[in-house]
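User: Structure please.
Assistant: Input sequence and predicted structure:
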Amino acid sequence: MVSDSLIKRSCSNDRLAHKLLYEACAPYLFGVIRNYLGGQREIRDILQEVFARIFYSLESYDSDKASFKTWITKICIYTCINELKKKNKWQLSSVDITEVIEPVDLTYLQLEQMNRSDIESYLNKMPEGYRTIFLLFYIDEYSHKEIAELLDISVGTSRSQLNRGLSWIRKNLSLNLKSLRNELV
């Protein structure tokens, strides 16, 4: 995504390096934000906030711990989650783990007929709570424990919301989850 030398130059507040880093990463991060926040008008504002956080904490980036893409994605996701919490845009009902339905088998569903914009359009129609947990679990590969900690919910609620999201997908879409992950990443 970006070279180590560009990251080092950005750490020393080189304005041209900041510009190049922004240009290299903005399209990817814009897509991540759009997936989490839908078609909101504030996406560009959130993108600016993400980059402010990236530039502010760039010196703490450690390539031995994670790739740069992973590191900026995490910053982006946390910023999106904070925005959702601030605006109370998503509602997760506290559900007992016993209410979790059986996992949905979506292997028969076909994605080949859909392009990326079709998939994003369907994701934007998904209820906010379902979409958030779906993205965290399947696209960004967080565990239910990590999701619960991030969203201040129980593990059972995370599992339940994911199952409800999968049921919603099964009813409303025809997606193959493995192909979806490959298409969006």
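Residues 4-87 form a domain with the Rna Polymerase Sigma Factor; Chain: A fold (CATH 1.10.1740.10).
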